[in-house]
Amino acid sequence: MDLYLISASKHPDITKPWLDRVAEAIEFQLYQHVAPFWQISGVRVFAVESMDSMPTTSGASPLVIYDTPDQAGFLGWHTYNAHEGVVHGTVYVDPILAGGNKIEDIPVTISHEAIEAVLDPYVNNMVFKDDSTLEPVEGCDRVQGDTYDVGGTLVSNFLGPRAFRDGPGPYDWLRKLSGPWDMTPGGYCMRFDVRQRKWNTLWGATIPQWRKDLVQAKLDAKLSRLARHVQRAG
Q: Would you write out the chain's pLDDT as a tens digit for each of its 234 residues?
């Protein structure tokens, strides 16, 4: 997979040089942090002018920055287009800035979606927490309130593979979690109760209500897709 970062935003601060810096930071994160932590290959990230500038080769996946969500309440998300065989990520500027954030915070969401597109490109990877509980492999959700700096660009903290099974850590890149299956105060996750056939959303202690509202819209969309996988598995 190669990620192609594209701006369809009209925000004056989201320029091509800004996009280049963000792409460089996220590629560094994916190669130097995510890849060794997960023992996977790194992913290249390119900043391009438009979808037309992308190659048509297999594995070229767009990550597009828009101003207004096509569905109310989304900060960003990624999906898999089975018809075209393409992983497609989106990030939305207006709801991020409306939450009191600055332009410098937008790369955190870009990083979040890039990491999750790499770790679960087909949006169908789930693991058993215990005999009766399934959790999707969401690389950033449980630690999504935590960030760090890569060359002057803020990026998202992320989970490691040890966060999805019992045993010793480290469980996340910033070493904030004390055990597997934990979350930091600004995080969230969803888990499926196999016996009750019901999804439950868990919220961190300090996640603000405005972000809960935005996250819930994203979760509702995810759940509609994941429910089909669970039903087939059952």
A: 899 999 999 999 999 999 999 999 999 999 999 999 999 999 999 999 988 888 887 788 999 999 988 765 567 777 777 666 678 889 999 988 887 888 999 999 999 999 999 999 988 899 999 999 999 999 999 999 899 999 999 999 999 999 999 999 999 999 999 999 999 999 999 999 999 998 898 999 998 787 777 776 666 666 555 554 444 444
Paired tokens of 111: 């990083």
Token pair recorded at residue 127: 């693991």
Q: How would you write 162-184 as a 3-class SS string?
A: HHHCCCCCCCECCCCCCCCCCCC
Q: Which long-range contacts (CB under 8 A, 24 or more apart) does 162-166 make?
A: 164/127, 164/135, 164/137, 165/127
14's enclosing H/E stretch is: none
- Return contacts of 96-100, CB within 8 angstroms, 24+ apart: 99/208, 99/210, 99/211, 99/214
DSSP strand pairing (76-81 vs 60-66): unpaired
Per the rule left: phi > 0, alpha: psi between -120 and 50, beta: everything else, 15 is: beta
- Tokens 């992320």 -> residue: 158
Range 171-203 burial, b when 16+ CB lie within 10 A, else e: bbbeebbeebbbbbebbbbbbbebeeeebeeeb
Q: Who contacts 58 (Cβ-Cβ below 8 Å, separation ≥6)?
A: 85
Residue with structure tokens 């990026």?
Answer: 155
CA 166 to chain centre: 23
Look at the pTM and tell me if it is higher than 0.85.
Answer: yes
